[in-house]
């Protein structure tokens, strides 16, 4: 009993001493060094590439153009020094981000997002996960809510982080962010794409398309996400400020023209 109490107190003190703030001002728990998280993200991405074929040609160039437009407008020093954004062969209408600046778009999503602005919504959302350090927060929370021994292992430098973020478990650990994180990435991503000169109103249409693709229900991969209606309402609440950002961006010369998705 005393051991459990001591471990619980340690977990609490670690949590209180490792609080950071998200870009939207939300308190976050970050127990791990960002460089460690990024290294594990790279390992997970390398593992993913071994089993998934990258789409080249038109789709790849299209998404690269959109991502570059967003990256160019990020404040200096914000985010990874290098982003890796690519399209991979998978018919599931999905996308995900890994710490370290890795963003994967499935070819199946290209059939749901109908234009550059809708794709920019997705890319901005995934970049927002990275910029908001959601992987560190999720892993830290998972560590603290596991056994007290796991907490101790996590902060004493052994292989707990590798176990939590290892390439063999990346899809179960890194991808299913919480609803709170998904909602935050929606709003942050809206700002990112708007600052690059994309039309933020396309975000609403995208989630309508996603709802239709899922037969009115979110697909299995989105089970931890807010539903499309909730996402749309939250985006509408931020739309006026996003539209202003987009107008200012276009007036400053940010007018992305990546073309249309090849049907």
Automatic annotation (TrEMBL):
Protein name (Swiss-Prot/TrEMBL): Zn-dependent protease
Pfam families membership: Peptidase_M48
Record flagged with keyword Zinc: yes
Signal peptide: 1-18
Domain Peptidase M48: 81-238
Family: Belongs to the peptidase M48 family.
Region (Disordered): 213-233
Assigned keywords, A-Z: Hydrolase, Metal-binding, Metalloprotease, Protease, Signal, Zinc
UniProt keyword Protein biosynthesis present: no
Alphabetical GO biological process terms: proteolysis
CDD domains for the chain: M48C_Oma1_like
Listed cofactors: Zn(2+)
Cofactor comment: Binds 1 zinc ion per subunit.
InterPro entries: Mito/Outer_Membr_Metalloprot (IPR051156), Peptidase_M48 (IPR001915)
GO MF annotation: an example: peptidase activity
